[in-house]
Amino acid sequence: MSSQDIPEENLPAEQDATVAVADEKNPFADPGLPPHEHRIQDIDERAAKRSERTVALLFTVSMLATVGFIASFVAIPHDKSIFVFPLGHINAMNFALGLTLGAALFCIGAGAVHWARTLMSDHEIADERHPIAAEPEVRAKVMADFKQGAKESALGRRKLIRNTMFGALALFPLSGVVLLRDLGPLPGTKLRHTLWSKGKLLVNMNTNEPLRPSDVAVGSLTFAKPEGLEEHDHDFQNEIAKAALMIVRLQPDDIKDKRELEWSHEGIVAYSKICTHVGCPISLYEQQTHHVLCPCHQSTFDLSDGARVIFGPAGHALPQLRIGVNDEGYLEALGDFEEPVGPAFWERG
Known about the structure:
14% strand
């Protein structure tokens, strides 16, 4: 059905168009606007209703796709794969998330475009250019045009479109909120505990043998791990990142911190090897000053004074492990660290 099939009395009034004529002063004449072509929705309310239902359907499909996105994220196992021709075997969750997210975005965009192309006013409007600094009259005209545009959009009258659009736009951001779940489970108390416990032997990282006090010379730096932790264990990297130790032997008279002296054995002190700045392993030791240096950002700790920070960006001292000697003469832990190792984290308080 075209505008030619509608009686003239049902057609909207034509827009006046002024056409300039070329002359010597103005050789490039303004050709004016072409005759306005009325859309079927402008002259047939049934067609307008069909367009309204189409837009509402697109917004509704967007809402369903967003719900499908959330359901896929929750219900589909992350390691499940499916065969999709011609893509082959792909991850089922990734495929479902991409499909539903794409559908939700596409339907919102398609609904908005179809609404603008079929139901909003499409009359051509010519406006003269004006200076950047608008006059009060121009600002008043802009506000009037805005109100007129809002009126012509029929947002108040087309309640079905308005409500479904608001629903689609309000529901779609939930996709981004749900994605935050993919950051992983909350750490709980895992960051507060290591493999160290009462009676665990200190094992030399290089020889894989338990340490005796005689194995640690004054001025030396030895790295240790908990008894029972082996490199072929599946969780070795996660556990050693929390449990790695620096073993240093000092003269007892050189130890300034009272608690450090009580937690040591014959001047042998055990501190976490993990820097409290960003978690780099500390490996540089200066014998004369008893300072250890993190090679990443040069945080420096004084092992003779509770491993407090004396330079660099680290926020707090290295945690100390209380040690002793068992009946067989081997160095052993007398418990776990009393504070979390490594950098501070948001749950730490």
